[in-house]
Amino acid sequence: MNLPRLRRLFKPVIHPVLHFYWRWRRPLTLGARALVIDGHDRVFLVKHSYVDGWHLPGGGVEKGESVQAALARELVEEGNLKLPAPPVLHGVFFNKRISRRDHVALLLVRDFHQEAPPKPNREIVDHAFFPLHPL
């Protein structure tokens, strides 16, 4: 059995346990997501090994880390995208679907470099740029 299938199989058990732990360990969680738009008006999305569908790149902000630093780190890890300039904050949103303490900062990225496509790994199994306005 492959790793993504195992993760999905055990998610109903592991997910509540982890959130119980995080509730006591981290009273508030903060994530950073990027809306990366290239020069052809396409948005960059990633496909995770542990959840279905395509998603905006990003992840959790660690203790002592800024939102911009967390986003820059996640964009390199998930898309081999490097930021020569700071992204623009679009907004901070309450994500009650995950928990009653989760907040996500959404930043707009139009200035970036991708020297080479990212290699699929255990977390990100696919990536692509999609048109903002499908034909």
Describe the structure using short key phrases:
135 residues; alpha+beta; globular; four-stranded mixed beta sheet; three-stranded antiparallel beta sheet
Blueprint of the fold:
Layout: H1 3-25, E1 29-36, E2 42-48, E3 54-55, E4 58-60, H2 67-79, E5 88-94, E6 102-109, E7 124-131
Low-confidence stretches: none
Q: What general form does the structure show? A: globular
Sheet bearing the most strands, described?
Answer: 4 strands, mixed
Strand neighbour order, sheet with most strands = 4-1-6-5
Indicate the radius of gyration in whole angstroms. Answer: 16 Å
First and last CA, distance: 38 Å
Quickly give the structural class: alpha+beta
**DSSP helical segment count:** 2
The total count of strands amounts to: 7
Q: What is the arithmetic mean of pLDDT?
A: 87
Strand content: 25-35%
Order of helices and strands: HEEEEHEEE
What does this structure look like?
This protein is an alpha+beta fold and 135 residues long. It is built from two helices and seven strands; from the N terminus they run αββββαβββ. It has helices at 3-25, 67-79; strands spanning 29-36, 42-48, 54-55, 58-60, 88-94, 102-109, 124-131. The strands form two sheets. Strands 4-1-6-5 form a four-stranded mixed β-sheet, with helices on one face. Strands 3-2-7 form a three-stranded antiparallel β-sheet, with no helix packed on it. The longest helix has 23 residues, at 3-25. The N and C termini lie far apart (38 Å).
